[in-house]
Amino acid sequence: MQMSPTEYIQHHLTNLQLNLHTGSVGPTSGFWVLNLDTLITSFLIGVLFLGLFYLAARKAVSTQPGKLQNFVEYSIEMVNGMTKEVFHGENSVIAPMAMTVFFWVFFMNLVDLLPVDLIPRLLGFFGIHHYRAVPTADLSLPVGLALTVFIMIIYYNFKIKGPKNLLIEILSKPFGWYLMPVNIFFRLVEEIAKPLSLSLRLFGNLFAGELIFVLIAGLIPFWLQWIPGGIWAIFHILIITIQAFIFMMLTIVYLSMAHESH
């Protein structure tokens, strides 16, 4: 079926959804709705990259390491070095979590470089007509990741500082006890800004990138698409890498702040 440019863009920006209340699958609305394409793609990418790293660990040798082992070892050393520079506490969880965040977000972003019609057309043979392949271009996933980090921030604030010292810090810092309401207000703004800065930055950049690819595919003849599409893809490689790196670094910084006094 031939679609107008507007219909084409709307079609590619529509999620495959599951309504938990009615059990129906397809574009729907309501509160109890899951974006199946986001969940499926993010889960598969997580399994694939964790499996790849697990395979490298299982086959690791000390004599003549292969390319995969060299890549994994270099990645571990790089992330561990950056974590030590930024994170000033003692926590063995932070570096592995930072590496997991970086590679998971990076590979989810990398899906944006696939031709926009590739996955939807393949799934169309099985009767699935809506499928957004880029999980990080769906606001629900960046928000979910950011809220997970935010919960860890709250947890480590209580665990490291203790409820009493944390309350004293909230009430008295940075302006002293006489400006307690101002201190509380600034603390609330600071804490709310953390998940917002994590989620909206990632979502905004990936949604814009996805939209530009869809516009190129929907408005430009197919025999000319490779010119603007190729140029944008080269530039977008930098964007998806930077966004994964920023998400990882902000996560480390925020968790470091939770381990320190004001």
Description:
With 262 residues, the chain is mainly alpha-helical. The protein has one domain. It has eight helices and two strands. The protein has a two-stranded antiparallel ribbon. Helix 2 packs across helix 4, helix 6 runs antiparallel to helix 7 and helix 7 runs antiparallel to helix 8. The chain starts with a helix and ends with a helix. The model has no long low-confidence stretch (mean pLDDT 88).
Count of all domains: 1
Overall pLDDT, averaged?
88
Give the structural class: mainly alpha
Tally of DSSP β-strands: 2
Main beta sheet strand tally, sense and closure:
2 strands, antiparallel
C-alpha termini separation: 61 Å
Could you state the order of secondary-structure elements as H and E? HEEHHHHHHH
| C-alpha-based Rg, rounded | 22 Å
The coarse overall form would be globular
Number of helices in the DSSP assignment: 8
The poorly predicted ranges are none
Strand content range: under 5%
Helical proportion, percent range: 55-70%
Short précis:
By secondary structure, the chain is mostly helical.
Features:
262 residues; mainly alpha; two-stranded antiparallel sheet; 8 helices
Helix and strand layout, with pairings?
Layout: H1 5-12, E1 17-19, E2 33-35, H2 36-58, H3 67-86, H4 94-110, H5 118-124, H6 140-172, H7 180-219, H8 226-258
Antiparallel strand pairs: 1-2
Helix pairs in contact: 1-7, 2-4, 3-4, 4-8, 6-7, 6-8, 7-8
